[in-house]
Amino acid sequence: MTAERTARKLIAVGSGKGGVGKSTLTANLAIALARVGRKVGLVDADIYGPSQPMILGNQGQKPVAREEKLEPVPSKYGVPVLSMGHLVEPGRAIAWRGPMAGGALTQLVDAHWGDTELLLVDLPPGTGDVQLTMLQKFKPAGAVLVSTPQDLALIDAARAGQLFDQAGVPVVGLVENMAGYACPHCGEVSDPFGKGGVEEAAGRLELPFLGRIPLDLAIREGGDSGTPPAATDDPLAQPFHDIAAKLDV
Ligand code: ADP
Questions:
Q1: What are the tens digits of pLDDT across the range 98-112?
Q2: CB under 6 Å to ligand 1: residues?
């Protein structure tokens, strides 16, 4: 490991289960940090279901290799990224056993990250091989956990938290996603997945609560079209900027 690598901070973004908005949060957080001048890069460690090329709008670009290491792929938001989605054809299933997935992850992290000082790592959901490789081999400086307010997602996030604890990686905060839905027709706010559960859990687990992100169609559309809200002047950018500001890394 070079001195340059040692100086770089890895922050893992994890969740107990899939579909809770981990990739969405990681991309928007990276953009928010880049907008305040941080040199931030993103590793999409969701080897089996990479979504960052779509979210960051650089799908179809291929990383080049130099001296047997990959060059991160630039995105228009000032956040370079490496993802399995840049290496395989879109939509192609990746059926690898743990060691191969671990090897792929190593290539993504151990790349030419240059002067990137902060590397956000979008982990796969759950507590499997790739997560273990990540924690044991690269020892992130901290982990952010995201969950919906639903109980099941919360219980799973607590389990993911234990994984980090065991590996000696401090959980630097919890984020509640999909909290509060404003009806686009009448404006009434409802809470399809409940509300406040993650903040309560953070209190119980004595972990910092970083903030909540509403359930909003524009967040989904922004992710699908490669224009994440944090990169826009939409009011929906604010929760991501607030979370980035609270993230003490
Ligand atoms: P994960 O990485 O946890 O699997 P994703 O970030 O891929 O989750 O999100 C799953 C889906 O939910 C995506 O289609 C994404 O655009 C959408 N989504 C995530 N967060 C929100 C939100 N706050 N409001 C609306 N849609 C969201």
A1: 667 778 888 999 999
A2: 15, 18-24, 51, 125, 177-178, 213, 215-216, 219-220, 223
Task: Give the ligand 1 atom nearest the CA of 25.
Answer: 6
Ligand 1 centre to CA of 106 (Å) is 26
Q: What secondary structure letter does DSSP report for 235?
A: T
Given the DSSP bridges, would you call strands 142-147 and 9-14 parallel, antiparallel or unpaired? Answer: parallel
Q: Is 142 annotated as a binding residue?
A: no
- CA distances, 222 to each of 48, 56, 77 (Å): 22, 9, 13
Residue 33 has pLDDT above 80, yes or no: yes
Look at ligand 1, atom 14, and give the residue with the nearest C-alpha: 220
User: Cα 93 vs. chain centroid, distance in angstroms?
Assistant: 21
Tell me the range of 44-48, 95-99, 152-156, 233-237 where mean pLDDT is highest: 233-237
pLDDT in tens, 112-138: 999 999 999 999 887 777 787 788 889
Q: What is the ipTM of this complex?
A: 0.99
pTM of the model: 0.93
What are the structural domains, with CATH classification, of the chain?
3-246 (3.40.50.300)
Q: Is 76 annotated as a binding residue?
A: no
